Amino acid sequence: MPDRYFEEFEPGQRWVTRGRTVTEADIVNFSGLSSDFHPLHVDKAYAAQSRFGQRIAQGFLVMSMATGMVPADPEKCEALYGVDKLRFLRPVFIGDTIHLEMEVTGMRERNDGSGIVDFKFEVINQDNQAVLVNSYSLLMRKRSTQ
Amino acid sequence: MPDRYFEEFEPGQRWVTRGRTVTEADIVNFSGLSSDFHPLHVDKAYAAQSRFGQRIAQGFLVMSMATGMVPADPEKCEALYGVDKLRFLRPVFIGDTIHLEMEVTGMRERNDGSGIVDFKFEVINQDNQAVLVNSYSLLMRKRSTQ
Amino acid sequence: MPDRYFEEFEPGQRWVTRGRTVTEADIVNFSGLSSDFHPLHVDKAYAAQSRFGQRIAQGFLVMSMATGMVPADPEKCEALYGVDKLRFLRPVFIGDTIHLEMEVTGMRERNDGSGIVDFKFEVINQDNQAVLVNSYSLLMRKRSTQ
Amino acid sequence: MPDRYFEEFEPGQRWVTRGRTVTEADIVNFSGLSSDFHPLHVDKAYAAQSRFGQRIAQGFLVMSMATGMVPADPEKCEALYGVDKLRFLRPVFIGDTIHLEMEVTGMRERNDGSGIVDFKFEVINQDNQAVLVNSYSLLMRKRSTQ
Amino acid sequence: MPDRYFEEFEPGQRWVTRGRTVTEADIVNFSGLSSDFHPLHVDKAYAAQSRFGQRIAQGFLVMSMATGMVPADPEKCEALYGVDKLRFLRPVFIGDTIHLEMEVTGMRERNDGSGIVDFKFEVINQDNQAVLVNSYSLLMRKRSTQ
Amino acid sequence: MPDRYFEEFEPGQRWVTRGRTVTEADIVNFSGLSSDFHPLHVDKAYAAQSRFGQRIAQGFLVMSMATGMVPADPEKCEALYGVDKLRFLRPVFIGDTIHLEMEVTGMRERNDGSGIVDFKFEVINQDNQAVLVNSYSLLMRKRSTQ
């Protein structure tokens, strides 16, 4: 689990989380939260006519669920530094089950008792297909400065 | 409003949306939706001791609210292509009011009747400070292929 | 309580319900449910500049909360027949506490084992002011046809 | 779209909105918001024995969703004036997709820089049947007084 | 209904409430409220491999829904005194319909104008099986001290 | 963390969780989920006149939040066996921050590859006062039978 101090990370470390099913209720609740009522998400009849053939989850619903799967010990992880190259590769349908796979791709020390760790961040569905990828960067505390 | 066909975009076009206040209820609901119960978001006592001095909104709550502010005519906008260089510049506190400012920064034609439009995407608070920025890319339909 | 058979109603009968406070969370949740994100309801800064000076509850949030206060024994009440002359008299602010007062104003027999009872339907705030009124008509079963 | 100043309305103008599917999650969330837990809405076994044969949406859930579909430019629309002759014509079942059709039926000038516009307000399901109708009146600003 | 003063209770009195269907949306909403995202509740793929073969409701979702079914006149019922021997006998699946059956099992007078009434508290599903039982104790006011 | 096999537990082991603030939004959402709209929870004016002087959280909201704080590795924890002697010692007000303290009080082996571990389960507020206690029993897998 990426639940450690900066010095304890190494490129190539990988973690796989438990899964969560994306339900119709999640899409409905996310529409309300984000005010995104695009018919691909909330209109069954419209979505049936689209190239997807059915309603799909909002991209940021999937991303938000995945960020909640990142273990984050507040003693070690100071902040989400940033997200790069976020791409939505495949639709997520109602009833799909997703999980998160993370791999350390780089580490950058800073002068302030912290360091940035970059992760390949992949959300994977029940058919083992990546639905969303990005480069996810966390600001981690150093053990030496605790 | 960025609610047009690909050919109608030009670099430098700008839009400013209406605002929305980020409430305690939004943070609570987003915690439940994302399973992100980090104490900076849900523990008033912990957050009071942090460098922020109070609870802050989740970064992806702010980003999700902002994506809901993007006007998206389903006839013209095909999909969210991707997000790059997403950075969280300032905390968003309970009661802050945010809005979205978008500016066209580039356009890339594709061979399939669509094109990608890149936007500078800035979420601004009530004190006119950017709290979150990124480069936001939408896949837009061409009018000529309708 | 208006929880009786058609024959048991008489003009002038009155009921007063318990109260419920309209919270910021209710407004947030109702925005999500109704997709009504008008800035008077969700933008604190905008609402501060309006003639109300602060955010107000959506009219149909107040009406929806009030309909939930109507006692409705499924054995006796068949359906909500209709609502007439619905007027929004005063704003409902965050933290206001509302209750419902109902008075029978008329009864119309039908040929099908049921009858319509009309009520003066008033939502009252903590300062004893009516915030919303209408004429509310329920389709009630007759005892004689049970 | 009824998103204009008072002087710009004319009897006979019509608008048709996009659709939205009424989900089980919407009914569950509306029960919680309104405290309306009538078994026709929340008890599958009870509803199966009713004349509807299944659970139905609350009438004010449908009405609330529809009001959220009314475009309302805060610069032009001052308030919801009132609703008359609200009737619930057909049940809305889980999975039905509804949209709103509005037609201007009348206009009444006022002396205060505003005017009332009356609309025939019809909620239509995926089989093109009206499920709910009313006369909906908005208080609109006049352009001349801006 | 257990909606009476202390002196009006007698061992053996029984009440049966109306039912409520436990939906996927209820489980999703309860996960968010409780932060209980155990895969038996939120991961369809995981639950399919478990001894239950499908997702199950959280035990305290069922218990919470049932406590909401207890009629509680604030004039007569002072507080929930306690719960003993709470056991979860059978899983509750998405779509199950539960109701509550209560029977007075004992009464204990106190010196302060109140008394404790103990109930056998059983949550029953649509197949008439108990899914949850406990001994539920309410602190009731005495009529004589009103 | 009580996140281990049956054989690894010993009486006296203790765990303390992170905290969570009980917000007005949590109470509102729990009312909707449980259908418990008792005026002590949802009517500010009523609650101001009660012996508590303000609204209080539902007992099972507090209990539900606390059960979500129990670490539960699905590989090791088979089920919640039961809860005994659940008592609500002090009110939880809006804005209170609670956490969970658990201590192993006993272990009972079973013949089926599992065992029951009993915990003293205490919910503690920001003033270090217990607001809710019970004896909480989990069905844990044995390592030897994996």
Write the layout of secondary structure elements.
6 copies of one chain form a homohexamer.
Chain A: E1 14-16, E2 20-21, H1 24-34, H2 39-42, H3 44-49, H4 59-67, E3 77-88, E4 97-109, E5 114-124, E6 130-141
Antiparallel strand pairs in A: 1-4, 2-4, 3-6, 4-5, 5-6
Structure description:
- The structure is a homohexamer of 146-residue chains.
- In chain A, 21% of the residues lie in helices and 36% in strands.
- Chain A is of the alpha+beta class and 146 residues long.
- Chain A has a single domain, classed as Thiol Ester Dehydrase, Chain A (Roll).
- In chain A, strands 1, 2, 3, 4, 5 and 6 form a 6-stranded antiparallel β-sheet that branches.
- The model of chain A has no long low-confidence stretch (mean pLDDT 95).
- The interface between A and C is small, with 6 and 6 residues.
- Strand 3 of chain C pairs antiparallel with strand 3 of chain D.
- Overall average residue pLDDT of chain A: 95
CATH superfamily of chain A: Hotdog Thioesterase
Q: Into which percentage range does the β-strand content of chain A fall?
A: 35-45%
Which architecture of chain A would the CATH scheme give at its second level? Answer: Roll
The CATH topology of chain A is given as Thiol Ester Dehydrase, Chain A
User: What is the CATH class of chain A?
Assistant: Alpha Beta
* Overall helicity of chain A: 10-25%
Please tally the β strands of chain A and state the result. Answer: 6
User: Which H/E pattern describes the elements of chain A?
Assistant: EEHHHHEEEE
Report how far the terminal alpha carbons of chain A are from each other: 20 Å
